[in-house]
Structures are given as C-alpha cells and as structure tokens.
Fold these 2 entries.
Entry 1:
Amino acid sequence: MWHVAVQREAFDLNQESQALRAGRRDVGAEVSFVGYVRDFNERPEVQALTLEHYPGMTEQQLQMILQQAAARWPLLGARLIHRVGRLEPGDAIVLVLVSSAHRQAAFSACEFIMDYLKTQAPFWKKEHTATGDYWVSERDTDQQAQARWGSYRESNHE
Amino acid sequence: MTQFTHLDERGQAHMVDVSTKHNTFREAKAQACVRMQSATLQAIAEDKLAKGDVLATARIAGIQAAKRTPDLIPLCHPLLLTKVSVELELDFTLPGVRIYTACRLSGQTGVEMEALTAASVAALTIYDMCKAIDKQMQITDLCVLAKSGGKSGDWSFDPYGTQAASLSANPDLALGIQPLTASTEIESTPNSAAELEVRFFAGLRESLERDQLSVSLTRLTSPSVAALLDWLSQQPGWQEVFTARRLLVAVNQVMVDLEHPLQAGDEVAFFPPVTGG
C-alpha cells in the first residue's frame, strides 16, 4: 500500500497503477506524476545525466515522505519510484502515484510528495553536455515549494 | 522500522497490556536544571523570597507530581510507587538549581515517567516561587539519568557514547575509546568502535577524491557534527571544500543540524543539497 523503490530499470505506469488498486473498491481517485529527463537545464543540449543516491537513507526518506503525506491527507495508498544511474532525455526518472476516495487529497498529496522529494531525498544529478559534465545546483524555487506546506503542526487542520 | 509500543497496528494510541509482565524491582532517576541569575540563586540560599522556602516547596511539589503522573500522561499506567525522592542542589557555577529525582517500585512497568514528572514539576515550582525577581530563568537538561529492572535491563544516560555502561544490556555494542593522540593525520582504520564512519557523496566526494573516512571521536574538540566539520576543514587542502558551499549532513541516515551530538559508531554523511526528482 505504501511502496517505495529506487531502481535502475524503467517503470510501467499502468502496472504500478494496477498494483496500487489491486483488490480494492474504495479508490475514487488516483493522481500520478511522472518526471522526465529534459534536454536542456543549466546548459542547453543535455546529452545524458547520471543519478547518484545514498543507498539505505534514500529508501528511508522516501518512506518517511509517504508517511508524512498519509498523516496530512486521507490517502488509501501511494507508490513512489525513483530511478538512478545513467538516463537520457525523454527517459522517465520519477513516478508518484497516490490514491484516495476523493480527488482533492490525491492531488494535494502528489504535489506535496514531489516537493518534499526535491529537497529531502538524497539524490544528486550530474548532467553530461557537449561542453562538459557538472553537478546540478539546488534551486531556490524547490526550497520555496517545500516551505509553503509549512510544518506538520500548522497544516494538520487543512 | 522500530515499533512504538503505544501505537497499535492502525497507528492509534493504546495503553500497553502489562498484565503478563513479571513484577520486578524497578528504579528510575531523572534530572532537570533551573538556570537563573546568581542574585536569584543567592536569594534562594538565604531564604529571602516572599513566597517562602523555595527548596522545601519544590521538593514536596516533585513528590506530589510523581504520584499524579498517570493523570497527566495519557498512556501511563497508574503505579504504586514505593519511594519518591527529590534532591535539590544549589550550583553557583550554573548558576541555578539542579534537581535529581528517583522513583522506585516493585511492579510490571518502568518508573521513568514518574521521575521525569517529579523533576519537571519541581522545576516549575522553583520558577513559580522565584519569578517575581527573575523572569529569565530557564528550565533545561530534563532527562532520564538511569533505569534499572525490567526486561530492557539497566541503562544509564550517555549522550556522547563515552561510557560502556549505557549499553550493558547489550554487550555486543560495548564501546571502547582510544587514547587521545597528538597526530592529526588522516587515518583509515575502519571497524574500531570509537570511530565515526564519515561518508561523502556527489560533488563533495569528487572534490575530496574519497567516499569515506574513519575519524576517531577523540580527535574532536566536542562530540558534535560542528566539531567534526571543523576537524575536516582543518585537514590539508580541505578548508575550501568544506566551507565554500552549502552542505547537508545526516547522522545514521537522518538529516540533522550542526548541533547534533555524535557517538562512537555513528555513520555521518556530508553531501551537497539534493537535486533528485
């Protein structure tokens, strides 16, 4: 019901969706987010990127993010898959799937999970371009996106 | 993941069933400090406060509080305490009052909540008695000092892992501290119990050209993340790497801040801000 995975292989949205809903008839809404590798970022013409992570801590942080989402909204389940290793433009990199009885909870929780993942999960991207390789820098907009959810206590009554 | 005994499998609060646990002799000791201006401490010592004898009142308040613990802490069992003691010590170096409490019984569940409650309420009473002359008093250092009896065995407070005593219930984890040496050269001697395992990721790993390092706690000026960071940045050629950019730190795979204490065997990871997703 609360599934996280860090893997090199591609994922299949349909299979993941079926796994999330398997055996249940109380799911009224499912929201999915898929992140892809772009061919432009800090420099144009990104040819590929390599994703590094902190094995062990990553899985724990992803579980914790799902637990925080489940504490804020009445969710029925969630699946969070993040890929690591070498990826090319057009490749899917991250999947968030959230199910709930009504749509609002699933929409909000999906966005919350991605905002937290961006600032709390130990992944690092190195981009490979024609003009060289570099580690991607943090973005202020990601920090701001996470900050708007406030602390757990403040938003407990949403 | 560790299970919280006060949560059932649905995550709802419940009182733990202790009816099958054996009666054993149990004791818990706790402490708290009330830090204050030295003039306030002097006034307590000379019994010059308008509300009367601060120490005698705080002592009675602590004893009464221990007996009322299950009324205050929702999932605490009512216990038949056989002894409650509250000792107060004036410490002019703090300056402030140190409170030491102990609770005992022969029963089926631990008494640390009672000892903590006694220390808390004794501290609050001192605050109440003295607030007319000092509004900036601080109540600090509330913690359990030691526990004995029961299934989990003996335990004593050891925030920096400097005593083996704290792990006496689990001899496999007994700690040894290496003697302080003058050498500051970087050594890689993993698997020694007094070592911290320090790990580096992403751009930081590439700048340092290494992904891990063992550092002895005895090399640090204090057992904290900040002291470890100081030590790392003092290594030849590393100052720029550790000070030029924002770094995050995790201890035992949980993100922490610089004030976080360290103990032997900790895995400490430094890394740049994360960029996944």
Entry 2:
Amino acid sequence: MSTIIESPMPGKILDVKVAAGASVKSGDVVLMLEAMKMENEIFAPEAGTVKEVRVKKGDSVDTGAVLIVLE
Amino acid sequence: MEMYLKSLGELSASSGFAELFTLNVTFGPISLPGYLLMIVVSCILLYLAIGKGFEPLLLVPIAFGALLVNLPLSGILDEAGLLGAESTGFLRYVYFGAEHEIYPIIIFLGIGALTDFGPLLANPITFLLGAAAQFGVFVAFIGANWLGFNLKEAASIGIIGGADGPTSIYLTMKLGQKQILPAIAVAAYSYMSLVPLIQPPFIKLFTTKKDRAIKMAQLRPVSKKERVLFPIICTVVSGLVLPACVPLVGMLMFGNLLRECGATERLSQAAQNEILNITTVFLGLAVGSTMEAEQFLRVETLKIIFLGLVAFIFSTIGGVLFGQVMKVLSGGKINPMIGSAGVSAVPMAARVVQRVVQSENPGSYLLMHAMGPNVAGVIGTAVAAGVLLTLLTM
C-alpha cells in the first residue's frame, strides 16, 4: 500500500533529501520546504521505501501537492 | 598671521563643535549635553539595526535621521521664517509626509500588495483572533492614562500593542501627538523585531502541552473570485461601519486588489517594491528627524517603551485566550496557539507559532493556519486605530 506525503502549505522546495528506492524511517526528514521565508522540514509519517519523488529543488508547490510517494 | 588666526577662530566658532555642549538636558540633579547624547543614542540604534538585525530597513533610516538633526547648526530641519531661519531645511520637507500622515498610508498600500489573505479567506473564523489580539491596545491605553498621559497620548501608546509600526505612526500624528512620535516609533519597531523573544513564554504560559499538540486540518484552496472580491467588500463594509479607518484599510485593500486581480501585475510589483521602499526611507528619516534631544531624552520615553511592551504582551495573551475559547467552540479542532499571531507583525508572529510547534511536535504545521489571524491582525490594528480616533475626536 502506498503512502502519499503532501505539501502542508504553499512554498518552494529547498532541498530533496531522498531519492527513489531509498528506505526511510518514521520521522526522517524527506525534504525542506520554504514558506514565508521560513525553512520547514517535511517528515516521513511512517517507515517505508521511496517509490516516487514528484518534486525537485526549486519547484513551487501548493497546499496538498503530492511531494513523495512511499510504499 | 593675525588675520589667519582670526579667521580660524571665526571658523571654529561657527562649527558644530562649539555648539555641541550648549544644549543641556537635565535628569534630576544630573545635566548632560543633549546633542552629544542623541548622537550616542543614534549610534546605539544603528548598532542594533545593523549589528543585531533589529528591523534594519526602518531603524537605519530612523537612526540616521536622528543623527542628522542632532548635528548642531546644520539647519536641516529649519522652517523658513520660524526662529530666524532664512530657508527651509531638507528634512522639514521630508517631515511633511509624516506630519500629514501620507507615508504610513502609502506603506499600507505596499503591505496590501505583499499580503496573501488566502489563509484568512480559507478559515474566516480566524478573523476573530485578529480582533482579540487587539486586547493589549486597550489595556495599555487605560494603563497609560492611569500613569498620567492624556487620552490622546495614551491611545497612541496603546496602539503599539497591535505591533504595527505604520498604524502607530499614523494614529500618533492624526491625534496631533508629535512630541511622543519618536518614542512610539522606536518602541513599535523594536517590539516587532523582538516578537520571537517576547511571545513564546506567554504562548506556553496560557496553553498546555496537549493544546500545543493539536494538529489542524489542511486549509481549503481559495478561488480567484474570492481573492478579488475580498478587498472590495472589506473596504466597503469596514468603511461604512467605521469611516475613520478608510485611509488605512482602504489603501491596504487597494494594494491587495492590485495583487490579486491579475490585471495590474506591474502596479502590484511597484507597490511591493519601489513605492514601499522609497516611502520607508522617507518615513524613517521623518521619524528620526523628530528625535531632538529635548523631546526624546525624557522620562516619558522610558514610560512609553515600557507601556509598549505591556501592550504587546497583553495582545499576545488576548489572542491566545481567545484561541482557547475557539478551541472549545470548535470541539478541539483549533490550536489556541495561533491566536498569538493575531498581532499584526506579519509574518513574524506566524513564524513564531510554527517555531514553537516544531520544537515540540515535528511534523505539525501551523504556519499557514497562523497566517489567518496574522493578516487579520493588520486589519484589526487599523480598525482599532479607527475606533480610538473616532472616540477621541468626536
């Protein structure tokens, strides 16, 4: 079953910390999102393998945009 | 030789050095050279702005304006015909824009063009938090009056609690309280930059760990139609309810309409950048130019700075307590911390909420939820200024 990590707010991707195929633990930082000139860490909600990374550094995202898919 | 020495003597007599020690300010038994002291104060403000990063965009022009007017004999603030002045000094013209409340209103145009009211439109109930966080304005208003300030001075001091520099300057000048303008401006902008230090202890004092852990549902998307209609409706409704707030709220909403309508991108960019920056330079210089030794070096200045802090703290508390009420009314869906962002220091106050939540619950995101009350606070402070203005000029 897949888990989708969505953007909690509109902003710009500062850094993507994982690539497809990587294993993550619950609570790992998967990417950095800048909103209101503030850096926000986006965490993996559960352990799994990164199936897909839908964004890259520099992308602008809206609230609810799919960032990463875990399985 | 004698002629040279005489000329040299005349030159030194007409230099600023000779005047530097002429104006003395007394504090009880102590008498100090006013000009010199204000030059030191200006340098301290410059250090705080440049070295410590306290609102440098405004504090640097304020401090430099103060430095300029405290160099004796320059005539930079002279008004032709007054006190024997032959011509009008440059800063007197610059001051005109502050004296007639032009700069704060133009700055509101820029702020409107910079502000995304989306989070407020997505969750309009948070507007109430922006209103509740004006609590400190009225606490400080009463406190200042109790400490001996007259009602108009007290209102100008109280509005510092809204954490909105331009509104504080606007109300002070509109009420004709020029003598306390520098203290008000310095206090308002200092506390805005100290938001990350002042707010967290009071947020934690009035919320439990469980409260702070409340996760809020994602905000709904806001349509373009809503974004375009909001500034127009807000202007008409607030203008009809409280006509005194039309200049501030009206220009704030005009700027926002330029941003959101999609047809005036160039004007929106100009309002956000050139217009806002140019006006900020002149507003800062104008405020600094009022910092003459006799006006600024008084015990009242310290009282105003203290009362400003009280106002700011009570606004934070008012917002959080109303956040608690909304938490109960919403069945635990609203995190009461976002109430603290109801002061209008945008987006610092919202960032503070996010920082507090992130330090305790990584993975909880309240930044955008806090932006709702935060932008509502800008309108709230402008409305509070309108209320005080109406009450005191009736």
